[in-house]
Design a protein that fits this description.
With 857 residues, the protein is an all-beta fold. The chain is built from one helix and 62 strands. 1% of the residues lie in helices and 43% in strands. Strands 1, 2, 5, 7, 10, 11, 13 and 14 form an eight-stranded mixed sheet that branches. Strands 3, 4, 6, 8, 9, 12 and 15 form a seven-stranded antiparallel sheet that branches. Strands 33, 34, 35, 36, 37 and 38 form a six-stranded mixed sheet that branches.
Length: 857
């Protein structure tokens, strides 16, 4: 049975099917009860998607209870009556100190999570069916995280959530005991949209989640990619939306120009930027709007060449687009066939006809996936389009075949996921273990570091006193800035011959500037000395040694009081110029850069991870420090080795100087920017690690680089590696940036400017994407996970393990993607502990954040 007491979870029962034996009935439970604790909840947050796979978000609202029988109707405005999904989330507050059984009644699939643990898993097409969880012991008055995921295929739609206990008769869980997620955020809900040239206007939705009491104004930044403002679309006036208390949804319409020219599909980008107010931005803040020409003949194509679905997802949704003239009706036939997956055993064969009505440009069909209990490699299904009527297949533009990959979910049975930490955390972002694993250091985004000690049960208990509080110098005024990285000396300890050093990477607030604003701010890396006094670990006062960013000062920072990430800022000079000016025609500096200055001309893409390498040197990642939402004319500084932006640095851990054999050292000067550069061409290299074949003389890295519009990237390479940003993203030229001055010279270079392609890249349409690479190297435990590499996506809520074509060799390319976890949002750090457990840091969760682990069994 799964028992949850307070914030702790002890797992000894896996509800693989949600089925109950006769001995798991309410009448057999014996408990000592207390007075009931009636709450004052407001319900659960409901996210309504117009696809069965939680993509194409259309509505967010607070539902008082989950007690719906939609029959054949639509569940929400903008959502069709067939093939939709809903995710309810928030917290649940039990009435009694006793074990509860949860029940779902649904038509079709359903998954229920209680405090992060899977309690019911029946994510398959089915008629109205009730499923029950195993007994779960809960504490009266405590709040526990709850997530209910539901999809409807075809026909009637039903979803209900109930509970029962020894003192509570079975009932729909009442509103009073349900609490919607109250953490406020504003997101760009329209982050992927295709519209026909004759479609009128693109309607952009900006949505507020959580608490609606605050106010805020947000700018929609619109930037041409291949489309041109004026001739292909019209920039509206105004482009700002303001949320007053109680407002949930704002829209802005961008008129599309319908001309008589036969032209290729074109696109423009959209982004959202906070102007003022007290509502933070969420992860989903950029998007791409695609204009489909209506002057060419109608043509059919798969949306993607590759689709992926988890084995336990129930249904895979496949999108087919119609381009060209969409004024009349047309149709196309779709079918499936075996790749490595076998029809009947792994999926259900499907063949059918998609009918496009006049004006329709996008349609979907679904493939039913079979969830078995067999641990197996990922499998593939072939998808085919044929027999176009009222349209054609256009050579070079139409994808008439595609691959659907099924990610096996049974390998996760070799791990037990559980809570690993006791204590209250606020936005934890990274952790680091002492070499023995006795202690764990926890970095919080605002600038505090906490220490926790391992107890006899293997959990980590948080000490009452912070290790250090540097919130006074850390800028956390924007979502992606703050204290972001932490590392301990490899010989960390307090005994003779040991080195009690801790290294912190953070966005820096110079003392003469306003605190925690979203204005431009530089970054630093500092070392602190730890001390152990009377069993408590703290930092030695005044022990800071600045290793990087000694010149990250206000005097070198441009526009310290302006709002970054708006179009006007791309015409302002970049920070960190010593002499001369930035040439906006060539996108190069006509002058010199300040040495040892780390730019932050954006609310994101600041400094990142810090790790000791096998050679004993310190490695640090730095983002490009430019806009996350539009093509920023300052971003090409990433390709200048005399600037520290968009780099992976290799420095002396004692002095912060470069290393003599770094690839760009000139004249033996180890204080210059270029002497510290080990790799370049990154956008936002938030987390990284080293390949297993790295040696003291040959260091290779694995870097997760958060993408813009085309791809999340996982890169690997050695000394001097260039990964192409801003001119390459994924496996192709970067939209918009490919027209910048300097782009053609980079593409046509014969002077060694070779960009490495990622070993793995992906982009899931109509969702936020934010890759987080593991920081602990390849997993060396046993079972199917051995020699795999773990990655997370903080926005999509997934954790996957990648295997390689050649065992333990990332450079050989990714072979399989194994699903480890879903619905685990906000994971910002993955690392392996000395005992072999895989730990994760979730920036948001119970009490503001949590640390969990997968323990091998």
């Amino acid at each position: 049975m799964a028992a949850i007491v307070g914030d702790q979870a002890y797992v000894g029962f896996t509800a693989a099917t949600g089925a109950l034996s006769s001995r798991q009935t309410i009448s057999n439970w014996k408990f000592e009860t207390t007075n009931q604790s009636v709450g004052n909840g407001d319900g659960l947050r409901g996210e309504y998607f117009d696809n069965a796979d939680f993509t194409n978000l259309k509505a967010v609202r607070t539902d008082r209870t989950v007690n719906f029988d939609w029959q054949a109707g639509a569940p929400a405005l903008g959502v069709g009556p067939e093939s939709f999904s809903v995710r309810w989330s928030g917290q649940i507050q039990p009435l009694y100190n006793e074990a509860y059984q949860f029940f779902t009644s649904s038509d079709d699939g359903v998954r229920l999570y209680i405090n992060g643990e899977l309690a019911i898993n029946q994510f398959v097409p089915q008629g109205v069916t009730e499923h029950g969880s195993a007994p779960i012991t809960l504490e009266s008055g405590k709040k526990y995280d709850i997530v209910l995921e539901y999809f409807d295929g075809f026909g009637n739609a039903v979803s209900q959530l109930s509970w029962a206990s020894a003192s509570q008769a079975k009932q729909i869980i009442p509103q009073s005991q349900l609490y919607a997620n109250s953490r406020p955020e504003v997101i760009l809900a329209t982050n992927g949209l295709s519209i026909a040239e004759n479609g009128g206007s693109a309607v952009i939705e900006v949505r507020r989640n959580g608490d609606t009491s605050g106010t805020g104004t947000f700018e929609i930044v619109i930037t041409g990619v291949s489309a041109t403002a004026g001739s292909d679309y019209i920039v509206p006036n105004p482009t700002r939306v303001t949320f007053a208390p109680g407002d949930v949804l704002k829209t802005i319409e961008i008129p599309i120009v319908d001309n008589a020219l036969s032209e290729n599909t074109e696109s423009f980008s959209i982004g959202i930027q906070a102007i003022d107010g007290n509502i933070p931005l969420g992860i989903s803040r950029t998007g791409l709007i695609t204009i489909i020409d209506d002057d060419a003949p109608a043509s059919f194509t798969f949306k993607q060449a590759n689709y992926q679905v988890n084995e336990n997802s129930g249904l895979a949704t496949i999108t087919v687009d119609r381009t060209g003239n969409t004024l009349g009706p047309s149709s196309v036939t779709y079918s499936t066939s075996n790749g490595t997956a076998i029809a009947g055993a792994d999926y259900t064969t499907v063949t059918g006809i998609i009918n496009f009505a006049p004006g329709e440009i996008t349609k979907t069909f679904t493939v039913a996936i079979t969830d078995d209990a067999i641990s197996e490699a990922n499998e593939t299904i072939n998808l085919t389009l044929s027999n176009p009527i009222g349209g054609v297949f256009t050579p070079g533009n139409s994808l008439t075949t595609a691959i659907l990959s099924i990610a096996d979910n049974d390998v996760s049975n070799s791990f037990v996921r559980e809570k690993a930490h006791n204590g209250n955390l606020t936005k934890p972002v990274a952790i680091e273990f002492t070499p023995t694993g006795d202690y764990i250091f926890i970095a919080e985004q605002a600038g505090t570091v906490k220490v926790s000690k391992r107890n006899a049960a293997g959990l980590y208990d948080q000490q009452a006193q912070d290790f250090i509080d540097i919130t006074g110098i850390v800028n956390s005024g924007a979502n992606d800035r703050g204290l972001l990285g932490i590392e301990l000396h490899p010989n960390f300890g307090f005994g003779p011959g040991q080195t009690p050093y801790i290294y912190l990477s953070y966005t820096y607030d110079p003392p003469e500037l306003a605190k925690d604003t979203s204005n431009n701010r530089p970054a630093r890396l500092s070392r602190f000395t730890a001390q152990l006094v009377n069993g408590v670990i703290t930092a030695v006062p005044n022990s800071e040694l600045i290793l990087l960013g000694k010149n990250s000062l206000a005097q070198y920072t441009q526009d310290i009081d302006s709002t970054p990430d708006t179009p006007i800022t791309q015409n302002r000079q970049p920070s960190g110029i010593a002499t001369g000016t930035w040439n906006f025609n060539t996108n190069q500096l006509d002058g010199t850069w300040v040495q040892d200055y780390i730019s932050g001309d954006s609310q994101s893409h600041s400094i990142g991870d810090v790790q000791f390498g096998p050679d004993g040197n310190l490695y640090v990642t730095v983002g490009d420090g430019t806009s996350y939402n539009y093509a920023d004319r300052r971003a090409p500084r990433v390709q200048d080795v005399n600037n520290l932006s968009g780099k992976l640095l290799r420095i002396n851990p004692e002095t912060g100087e470069g290393i003599a054999d770094n690839p760009f050292v000139e004249g033996g000067d180890l204080t210059s920017n270029r002497s510290k550069v080990y790799q370049l061409g990154f956008r936002n290299p938030f987390r990284f690690t080293f390949t297993p074949d790295s040696t003291a003389t040959d260091i290779k890295t694995i870097v997760g680089d958060v993408g813009w519009f085309s791809a999340e990237e996982l890169n690997t390479g050695g000394k001097g590696g260039n990964f192409g940003w801003p001119y390459f993203e994924g496996n192709g030229n970067t939209v918009a940036y490919n027209g910048f001055g300097g782009a053609n010279a980079f593409y046509n270079s014969t002077a060694g400017q070779t960009a490495f392609k990622p070993i793995y890249s992906y982009r899931v349409p109509n969702t936020g994407n934010a890759i987080v690479a593991g920081s602990g190297g390849l997993y060396q435990g046993g079972g199917l996970y051995k020699d795999t590499f773990f990655i997370a996506d903080a926005s999509r809520g997934v954790v996957n393990a990648l295997s390689f074509n050649t065992t333990a060799d990332p450079s050989s390319g990714v072979k399989d993607v194994l699903s480890v976890a879903t619905n685990l949002f906000g994971v910002v750090n993955l690392t392996t502990a000395p005992d072999g457990s895989l730990y994760y840091v979730q920036i948001a969760g119970p009490a503001g954040g949590q640390i969990g682990r997968w323990r091998p069994v």
